[in-house]
Amino acid sequence: MNIITWLVLMLVVLFGTTANLSLKYGLYISSPTKGASASIQNLLLSRYFWIWFVCYTFMTILWLYVLRTIPLSQAFPVLGLMYALIPIASHYFLKEQVIFSQWVGISIIITGVVLVVN
C-alpha cells in the first residue's frame, strides 16, 4: 500500500462529509419556511443537491478503488472519520451546536481510527 491509496481513502471521507453537509444545507434552504419540509422540486433544483450527487458519485467510485487496494479491516474503520468530521463541519459551516459529550465521542472515534489503522 502506498501513500496515494491512503490519500484516495481520505478523499472518500472528505467527499462523504461534503455530500452530507450539502444535502442537509440543500434541504434547509429549499424549504419554504427554512425549517419546514422541503419540496422535492425545490430540492432537485438546488445546487446543493447536485453537489451531494456529484460527491456521492465520486465517493463511490473512489471507494471501489480503495476496496481493491487496502484491506477492508483497515479501510472501513477509516470511514468512521465521517462520524467525527460531519459534526465538526456542521458546527462550523451550519452553525449547529455540538455539546461536550459529542466532542468526547468525536475524540474517541478519532483515537479508535488511529489505533485500527496502525
From TrEMBL:
Predominant cellular place of this UniProt entry's protein: membrane
Membrane-topology annotation of the record: Multi-pass membrane protein
Residue spans crossing the bilayer: 48-67, 74-94, 100-117
Any Pfam family matching the protein: EamA
Claim: Cell membrane is one of the keywords in the record: yes
SUPFAM superfamilies: Multidrug resistance efflux transporter EmrE
Record-stated family: Belongs to the EamA transporter family.
Protein name: EamA family transporter
